[in-house]
Amino acid sequence: MHVFVNAAASADGKLSTRRREQVRISGPEDFARVDRLRAGADAVLVGVGTVLADDPHLTVDDSSLRAARTDRDDPATPARVVLDSTGRTPTDARILDNAATTYAVVSSAATRSRRQALADAGAEVVVAGDDRVALDDAVSALATRGIETLMIEGGGEVIYSFFAAGLVDELSVYVGSVIVGGRDAPTLADGDGFVGSFPDLSLEDVRAVDDGVLLEYTVTGRSGANG
Ligand SMILES: NC(=O)C1=CN([C@@H]2O[C@H](COP(=O)(O)OP(=O)(O)OC[C@H]3O[C@@H](n4cnc5c(N)ncnc54)[C@H](OP(=O)(O)O)[C@@H]3O)[C@@H](O)[C@H]2O)C=CC1
Ligand SMILES: Nc1nc(O)c(N)c(N[C@@H]2O[C@H](COP(=O)(O)O)[C@@H](O)[C@H]2O)n1
């Protein structure tokens, strides 16, 4: 499976505020680019933290991009995936509407009633892992459902986990011209953080987008060279 991460960060590396309230960092050109990225994916994945904070829809909005997908017999908008170990996704979350297939990936820690509630709300429930969603198992389960290209949109906990598992092939970061600040505000990669061995990136392209900068990387492996 090809896995790519896209996120928008402030100039000081934050994805949102310390209150975990969504910040509009991208401008119109970048949001259009994100729409194209979504249109090129089989599924768009977020963590339950993003669902609870933002209630995202995660669909392709541009009608010509949707038409191009249906012309090649793909659904108009990619599948949506939420990593949600205990099934905390609200049953009225926007990702559970009928705009696309939605996979709720839970762990064995999710109660039968939460799994049933998510299924009743329209999700296809996938179990991967014991206490927390195990990414290798989740990715395998998605692959068996025909997902070959997976876009990770965040947030910082989930992005870190994908890097820690060595599952990321490409990263694009839009760096907006704003400072958000806050030691507890989410960054691109939160989690426990790396010590001694760091994912290495190769910078493939830099360009001005809106009033910020788009950085595009491929992931080349792990080394301690940056430490
Ligand atoms: N600027 C941008 O581009 C973006 C910004 N955001 C912002 O990020 C914030 C949310 O980020 P964050 O709080 O980090 O939440 P995440 O969206 O990264 O979700 C984290 C949660 O996902 C669940 N999860 C399940 N399995 C895993 C796993 N293997 N690894 C990691 N997480 C797992 C965990 O909850 P559990 O254990 O209960 O399952 C965890 O707490 C919001 O403020 C949002 O606005 C989000 C996306 C993009
Ligand atoms: N690319 C980008 N730029 C920003 O400035 C952002 N705040 C985000 N946030 C992400 O977009 C999701 C919202 O998606 P919908 O418009 O509801 O489909 C949000 O949940 C974050 O993942 N992204």
UniProtKB/TrEMBL annotation:
GO biological process: riboflavin biosynthetic process
Pathway connected to this protein: Cofactor biosynthesis; riboflavin biosynthesis
Statement: the UniProt record of this protein carries the keyword NADP: yes
Gene3D superfamilies associated with the record: Dihydrofolate Reductase, subunit A
NCBIfam families: rib_reduct_arch, ribD_Cterm
Main EC class the enzyme belongs to: oxidoreductase
Subunit comment: Homodimer.
Transmembrane portions of the chain: none
Annotated catalysed reactions: 2,5-diamino-6-(1-D-ribitylamino)pyrimidin-4(3H)-one 5'-phosphate + NAD(+) = 2,5-diamino-6-(1-D-ribosylamino)pyrimidin-4(3H)-one 5'-phosphate + NADH + H(+); 2,5-diamino-6-(1-D-ribitylamino)pyrimidin-4(3H)-one 5'-phosphate + NADP(+) = 2,5-diamino-6-(1-D-ribosylamino)pyrimidin-4(3H)-one 5'-phosphate + NADPH + H(+)
SUPFAM superfamilies reported in the protein's UniProt record: Dihydrofolate reductase-like
Listed EC numbers: 1.1.1.302
Every Bacterial bifunctional deaminase-reductase C-terminal domain range: 2-215
Keyword field: NADP, Oxidoreductase, Riboflavin biosynthesis
UniProt-recorded name of the protein: 2,5-diamino-6-(ribosylamino)-4(3H)-pyrimidinone 5'-phosphate reductase
GO molecular function: 5-amino-6-(5-phosphoribosylamino)uracil reductase activity; NADP binding
Family classification: Belongs to the HTP reductase family.
